[in-house]
Amino acid sequence: MNYLEEIKNSHAETFDGVSEKEVQQAEEKLGMMFPKTYRDIVKEFGSVEVDSEEIFGLGVEGYLNVVETTLKEREVSQGKLNGYIVLQNIGMEGILIVVDEQDRVFEYQLGEFRNLLSTTAEYIKSLL
């Protein structure tokens, strides 16, 4: 079973997917490409929530919108998050989960990155 099916068959709450055009517009605003697994997930589901864990995406408004949140966090981090997409705000001690164009997932806190040795799909599956 692939990661999209695993998410679909889990207890995760998903939203409406978005078009390739919407993904491309988001990439332009962020100045970077979405990694393949994240691109597939937002095209299929828009955004994903697993219990209280919220994965930012597209087709949603406010802080769940990956473009709005990533741009805001890039500003707060004074450029340290340029080249990263913010997937999740843990809500504790300023910890963010971010991903780069190579689909490497990191925990970011106070200017420091810790590699979680995961892809976007693996990270979301770990929450299921």
Automatic annotation (TrEMBL):
Residues 17-116 form the Knr4/Smi1-like domain. It comes from the Bacteria. InterPro entries: Knr4/Smi1-like_dom (IPR018958), Knr4/Smi1-like_sf (IPR037883). This is Knr4/Smi1-like domain-containing protein. It comes from Exiguobacterium sp. (strain ATCC BAA-1283 / AT1b). The lineage of its organism: Bacteria, Bacillati, Bacillota, Bacilli, Bacillales.
